UniProtKB/TrEMBL annotation, chains A, B:
UniProt keyword annotations, A-Z: DNA-binding, Transcription, Transcription regulation
GO annotation (BP), single: response to amino acid
GO MF term list: sequence-specific DNA binding
PANTHER family with a match to the protein in the record: LEUCINE-RESPONSIVE REGULATORY PROTEIN, TRANSCRIPTIONAL REGULATORY PROTEIN
Protein name: DNA-binding transcriptional regulator, Lrp family
DNA sequence: GGTGAAATCTACCTAGG
DNA sequence: CCTAGGTAGATTTCACC
């Protein structure tokens, strides 16, 4: 489970790419794609799981099909910048399930959030009653996703 | 495989949540979490796959472990806005593997891109030799990810 | 790289509402 | 008639050779 920075050869990279496309590929199917025997393909997979290169396997869901109609990016600027404020904000971000990702970036804003909500009303609630109500938040700017040209493509390997 | 907007009950939602956390859960493990028999849990999984609620299963990789050290968000504004320009830009976005996601948003910029590169030099190349060299691109503003507070959490179900 | 036991999936069957 | 639980053959994994 360690991040033992092992070197990955070309076959490893192709195996990772294949498992990003379909995590349910069998060792045999992987092997035929990579010109390996099933046992060798399975062994490589185990090694990549143990090394931490593969963090886990997850189901990709259809947000719209599940009623998550509105996706938005929200840039947040804090009032003051201290470890205490950052901690408090971070805890709030962790807690809210509709905030699926959060980053600190270079540039003006302190945080970029990505959120999925059931509608504009729910997004409005998130912004006003959660973010702007938070003591350290100074300014919030949200942009709603209109169209997704490219959706969570595999990492470039 | 159709998006037959079937109604999902509470058990379905909990099953989806569990499979987001771990796509390799067995039908038996799912069943014991949901107070169902293994066969029923498996049947529900199949139904959710067929209905399109589950789009597929993917391996979550460790970007830093794979040498993708620099992650960035890039806002792009186009010179002029016509179907021809949009098409041309969209084709370029599809082609570049380091651009993993692309959205059109409300607000000033025309596109928001998310990119993973091996380093600052590769990001610089992407911005200058790919984006700014593109005939219809007017302006590019990139922000590098410094820290990820919350990483691709499951969708809120 | 191959093999076999154990685990898992899934199509089919039966029971209950 | 529809939904839940059980069963057996086929498939897959994984420790060992």
């Amino acid at each position: 489970m360690q991040d033992s920075r092992v070197t990955l050869d070309d076959t490893d990279l192709r195996l990772l790419a294949a498992l990003q496309r379909d995590a349910h590929l069998t060792a045999e199917a992987l092997g035929s794609q990579l010109n390996l025997s099933a046992s060798q393909a399975g062994r490589r997979r185990q090694r990549l799981e143990a090394s931490g290169a593969i963090r886990g396997y997850t189901a990709r869901l259809d947000p719209e099909g599940l009623g998550l109609a509105v996706q938005a990016f929200i840039q947040v600027t804090l009032e003051r910048h201290g470890p205490e404020q950052a901690k408090s904000f971070s805890r709030m971000v962790e807690t809210r399930p509709e905030i699926v990702s959060a980053w600190t970036l270079t540039g003006d804003a302190d945080y970029l959030l990505r959120a999925y909500t059931t509608g504009l009303r729910a997004l409005h609630t998130l912004i006003h009653e959660v973010l702007l109500s938070h003591p350290t938040v100074a300014r919030v700017q949200s942009q709603i996703v209109m169209d997704q040209l490219k959706a969570d493509a595999p990492l470039p390997l």
